[in-house]
Amino acid sequence: MIPGFSGSLLAITFGVYEKTLNIIAHLRNLTKSKMTYLLLLGTGIIIGIIIFSYIVKFLLECVYFPIMLLFVGLIIGSMQDLWENIKGYKRPVLGFLFFIGSFSSVILFSSNKISYGDFDTSSFLYFPLGLIESITTLIPGISATAVYMILGVYDVILDLYINVLKPTNLLNLFFYFVGFGIGVIILAKLLTFLLTYYRKILYISILGFMLAAILSLIRDIFNTSFSFVDLILGVFFLVLGYIVSNKLNHLF
Fold first, then answer.
1. Whole-structure pTM value
2. Of 12, 17, 39, 161, which sits most exposed with the smallest number of CB within 10 A?
3. Would 85 be classed as within a structural domain?
């Protein structure tokens, strides 16, 4: 729910990332203990998402400009670990091409934002949002929240989580979790392969993605109305977010 904190990086920190990835990649070998593990993990994720959705929604409605710059600071502070993962790569031309490719794709998507009203007319649009969630959940270093902000659908996701218990929201949730489930099952084996054999290329692509995400978010933030006080608070929270994220990532 908070940009700059990759769920998969935190999962690595707490020693559950590879275990969970291996279970998902080999669902045919699912045992009772593994099923219980996934159930408990999933329950914790759902409870955390619902609680923090209310908090983030409240903050964005009350102090949008400073909070958004706080989020940008959190994202910037989390990028040092990406750099550490690509240091020493010996094929700079190939790395540059992957960097440019991921950077350009974000810029392209950020200039074609989805309308909030589109989700009122088609529940199926929640399916690709679920796919995005699965990708960002499994790939270390990418924040789903940052992706949603770039696409202009972060409010849609917040409302989906906040209204998770409403019957009128069930169809939206169905398509969202179908997209998430399909994405996780398909990507688990692929990412296991990529992290084993092409780790640096993967992280170079993620770095390009995150740099473009920061530029896109800053552009959108400063396109909104804000006061001088908002600007001062925003700069303070930007620096604070960077420091907190950087320190936490080093701590973990």
1. 0.69
2. 39
3. yes
